[in-house]
Every structure is written in structure tokens, then in C-alpha cells.
Target: Nucleoside diphosphate kinase
Amino acid sequence: MSTERTFIAIKPDGVQRGLVAPIIARFEQKGYKLAGIKLVQATPELLAKHYEEHVNKPFYPKMAAFMSSGPIVAMCWEGKDVVKQGRVILGATNPLQSGPGTIRGDFGIDLGRNVCHGSDSVESATREIGLWFQENELIQWTKIADAWIYE
Model:
């Protein structure tokens, strides 16, 4: 089976609202494997690297202030097509355009409080995982249930 990794972050609004367990459950119920998780207080330097394509945009200061306003749950998930499917689980970036059953559709209303971040490509996932995790923080393990998930 070919697997990939993605970076999923529960933003400060999701942490403050007590949505950590329900969000993790969505990925576990789908069948994805958690390879890394930690609670992080994001620094301005980390956020500038993570959002490097947005640093010079007018909305960046407000976004960076929000992302550093409280703890973030940083996660690395593994599985078949996990980057694309992770984005499906999260829903559209704007919660008002997210369907019911998605994390943002079920838990979000405003674009600036959309609960989660998810990598948008395998390349972005690799870069983002490298920013938020050291290699020794990612665990290689065998999930026994994989035989019941994958052919």
C-alpha cells in the first residue's frame, strides 16, 4: 500500500472550543493513522515560515496574531491519499461554503475562525511537517486495523 503524510493543525479557536477530540475522531474513523501530535504555542518565526506565501499580504498580521493567540494542536496523519482526503474531511476554507459532515461545515461560521488547517499538496505537507515536527517526534508504527481498512 502506498501512503503519504499530511499536516493538520487544530487552530486556537478549535482548541479553545474543545473540538480537539471530535476532530481527531474524524481522521481516526476514516482510517488514517496518527504519526505525530503535540500542543504548540506558535512563535512569530514559525508562523512566518508556515505562511511564507502570505507574509506580505494585508491580512497576514491579523492572521498571525490569531494563530499565536493560543495553543495549536499540530498533527501528522498517514494514509492513502491523506492530503486530498484530509482537505475533504476539513471542508472548504470558508466554513459557509463547507458542507454538513465536514469539520468546518459542522463547527465553523467565519473564515477567520475556521478551526483547522490542512496541507493542500504533498509538497506542502512535507514542508509543513518539517516546520512543526522534528523527525524523532514522528512515530513509525503498524496499525493492526489497516488489514480491515486497505485491500
Q: What stands out?
A: Helices lie at 12-16, 20-30, 44-50, 60-67, 82-90, 103-107, 122-132, 146-149. The chain has a mean pLDDT of 97. The two ends are 8 Å apart (CA to CA). Strands lie at 4-10, 33-40, 72-79, 116-118.
